[in-house]
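To whoever picks this up:

The nightly regression suite flagged Twin-arginine translocation pathway signal protein as changed. Nothing in the input moved, so I suspect the structure step. Input below, exactly as stored in the fixture:
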Amino acid sequence: MTTDPLVPADFTVPRELLAPEFRLESLGEQHNASDHAAWTSSIEHIRATPGWAGRGWPPADGMPLERNLADLRRHAADFDARRGFTYTVLEPDRDEVIGCVYVYPDREDPSVVSVSSWVRADRAELDAPLYRAVSAWLTDHWPLGRFVYAER
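Regenerated output under the current build:
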């Protein structure tokens, strides 16, 4: 992955996105237990979500909570360094994790931004609304240029 910032220095990176069905906020350590519970309850569903096939994540056997915390810290460091942006998807009225959104340089072509997202299996009906809201948000409010995001 590139160490270059993904967005210009004068761009104020949004910390949240509010929608009627969910809200996004930058992923951090405070989300560890709820994030871990969300994805471990939905491994097969996430792997079947458009854009996740063949990625090897989430790990079929899960991972310890401590390793999940290390991943969250890495994502937070990327956010602070403006190299990539990970948002947790939360219930609109409480801090329960129901998914995640990732905005990073494409692994094969760093001039393109790769966007991916997942929601818990029990909130699968939010996959398409999340895709639409994030696509519009990135198009209308971010200076990303071209991005790819598997359609729902």
